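ARCHIVE RECORD
Type: protein–small molecule complex
Small molecule: guanosine-5'-monophosphate
Source of inputs: curated submission
Record status: active
Notes field left blank by submitter.
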Amino acid sequence: MIERGLLIVLSGPSGVGKGTVRKALFEQEDIKLQYSISATTRRPREGEVDGVDYFFKEREEFEHMIENKKLLEWAEYVGNYYGTPIDYVEETLASGKDVFLEIEVQGALQVKEAFPEGLFIFLAPPSLSELKSRIVNRGTETEDLINNRMRVAKEEIELMDAYDYVVENDKVENACARIQAIVTAEHCRRDRVSARYKRMLEVE
Ligand code: 5GP
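STRUCTURE (tokenized, with ligand):
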């Protein structure tokens, strides 16, 4: 019998560095997680490849996926749809491999409803001032937009209670090491492994 893989969800407030941490994690050679590529209606940025970074969709196609229940979760974020194709997640978990999602907070809450047994990791900023400087440094946003993003980020930090672990993103490599350690520990949990040992005893 194949033991199901773990569903790992990395989420956290806008601007905290989820994308950067995820990319650094998947650049590591020993990584054994399978990244779930999201679908989105936003246009590709320079260098992004369809089927690698995202599955880029038209709004109509995306709405079709929603209607046909092809998404595990979805959310509208800054005017675009983002969602997780469900078939890949189900098939990969059934094959015994861990699936890794990097999604915004509304989507993470939906996954929690569908997969309460998942591993939910909240990426937190070292401080609010640090978060603000990251949002400001990101580019050309107006004062109003920055204040609005900060307000949303504060509300998002309050959603931390729905998560199993909090990883501070003080430095990308530290955040990656913490995530790897959490996944390793999770695989050693008694409630995950005891059935395997019981089966072993039955055979003896
Ligand atoms: P970006 O447009 O910068 O690639 O992503 C914007 C936001 O969408 C990020 O916070 C990212 O985590 C989130 N995101 C990416 N894929 C998904 C997804 O499949 N579902 C949800 N809910 N959020 C996603």
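CURATOR ANNOTATION: The helical segments are 18-27, 59-67, 86-94, 105-114, 128-137, 143-157, 172-187, 190-203.
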